[in-house]
Write a structure and sequence with these properties.
mainly alpha; 75% helix; 459 residues; 1% strand; two-stranded antiparallel sheet
């Protein structure tokens, strides 16, 4: 029985084999810590948006300048996603996660005291570089530890941190900012990050698969523990994976999701305050609504995806088409809230539009593990992150420019979100149609068969 066949048998029985054993207390600790890891990852993103009015006042920024400063986080994001993800293969997930958290703490430290625009931009650039591979790292750990039918839900739990972070940070850090200053908010994040790094190193000290990797006789890196690869029968270079339709499907779905994510953390509080007229205190509460609903949406989508697979639906439907449907709903809601007057209906549409961003990063990403060899996961996920990070570079700046150019702030927001909503729908449809894990696996197996005689003749 091949490794892939064993994996499929595991999916049918619902039992874990090899490293995919029953869920232990240690497994729960690791998933919980990864959830906390992602929570902090998005809490620091949300903080810059919560501090926007104070930043603009203290540093004398216009909306367009603030948007440019917000986008600085993403200028090196793609480089970090690719370079660090490949490097982390050599040191293992334990030290990779700890190293990232320590780097985040160091990057945010300059913002704990009064500073300048240049320092803020440099800090955000460094933080973006070190946060680039965070998603790839979390998804790789989840893919290593969970079978196909549980992977989407496990990934959804970890990715819930993208909503839990701002959900907790928004009221807490808004209070900290209003009571003391925006610098105090970063003091809190630095302290919590340092504690997380210590706890992570303690919990994963003896965890199999979390240590460094060893080289095989052919030079490939493998986990020290006996950890069979369910896609070990695929042997192609990374460039072949990047040519598959599924790679571009995942990249486009993730791009659509990240358009929502980047605007939610950088502009949603300002939009609620300046565009819809709510007070700072009310914004601190209203801005939590999309994050709270996003947790429900994310976990529900993960459960639906798993049930679709168990019911015999294809991975294309359970991963790609399901994600496409969610994102199209978000895009339509965004277009709709630009066409209605301020009030409860508009607020409901805003909450709906900003609640669906993370589905692409759990449900759709889970499909990659159905055809992706372990040795290429860091590079593959890193390249996808490099593509969708462009959304984080362009969208905050783009919206700021439109708001600046409009006759009124409200009209600027309406024009900007209208364009973004349409773009989300276009990218979601294209990505959903391209993502087809089963087809990609067939193509890659065929290429493996063609390459094998050549490789054997060369030896």
């Amino acid at each position: 029985m091949t490794a892939h066949a064993a994996s499929q048998a595991t999916a049918v029985t619902g039992e874990w084999s090899g490293p995919r054993r029953g869920v232990s207390a240690k497994d729960r600790w690791i998933i919980g810590l990864l959830l906390a890891f992602f929570t902090l990852n998005f809490a620091d993103k949300a903080t810059i948006g919560l501090a926007a009015p104070d930043l603009e006042s203290d540093l004398g920024l216009s909306p367009a300048q603030y948007g440019l400063m917000s986008s600085a986080f993403f200028w090196l994001f793609a480089a970090g996603a690719v370079v660090l993800a490949l490097f982390f293969r050599r040191i293992g997930w334990r030290w990779s996660a700890a190293g990232l958290m320590i780097a985040w703490v160091a990057s945010m430290a300059p913002l704990t005291v009064p500073t300048t625009v240049t320092v803020v931009i440099a800090s955000r650039m460094l933080l973006g570089f070190f946060e680039g591979p965070a998603h790839a790292l979390c998804q790789s750990v989840v893919a290593d530890r969970f079978p196909s039918e549980r992977r989407a839900f496990a990934g959804a739990v970890v990715n819930a941190g993208s909503s839990v972070g701002p959900l907790l940070a928004t009221p807490l850090l808004t209070w900290v900012i209003v009571t003391w200053s925006w610098h105090a908010a970063f003091v809190v994040l630095v302290a919590v990050g340092a504690v997380w790094a210590v706890v992570w190193l303690m919990v994963t000290r003896r965890e199999p698969g979390m240590g460094p990797r060893k080289a095989t006789a052919r030079g490939a890196l493998q986990p020290v523990a006996d950890d069979p690869d369910p896609n070990g029968d695929i042997d192609v270079p990374l460039i072949s994976l990047l040519r598959t339709g599924s790679f571009w499907g995942l990249a486009l779905l993730s791009f659509a999701g990240y358009l929502i994510s980047s605007l939610k953390v950088s502009w949603l509080p300002s939009f609620l305050h300046d565009g819809m007229g709510y007070s700072r205190g009310t914004v601190g509460l209203l801005a939590t609504l999309p994050y709270g609903l996003a947790i429900v949406v994310l976990l529900t989508a993960g459960l639906i995806s798993g049930r679709m697979l168990r019911a015999g639906r294809s991975a294309r439907a359970a991963r790609g088409l399901l994600t496409m449907g969610y994102l199209c709903f978000a895009g339509v809601a965004m277009v709709a809230f630009t066409q209605v007057p301020p009030g409860i209906v508009q607020l409901a549409l805003v909450v709906a539009a900003f609640s669906i961003n993370s589905v692409a990063f759990s449900v759709a990403f889970a499909g990659a593990a159905d055809f992706l060899p372990r040795k290429h996961r860091p590079g593959f996920f890193g390249c996808i992150i490099a593509v969708y990070s462009v959304a984080g570079i362009v969208s905050p700046w783009f919206l700021g420019v439109i708001v600046d150019a409009a006759d009124t702030v409200s009209q600027g927001y309406a024009d900007g979100f209208l364009v973004v909503g349409i773009t989300i729908c276009v990218f979601a449809v294209a990505g959903g149609l391209l993502l087809n894990p089963a087809r990609s696996r067939e193509v890659l197996l065929a290429e493996t068969a063609r390459r094998r005689p050549v490789a054997e003749a060369a030896r």
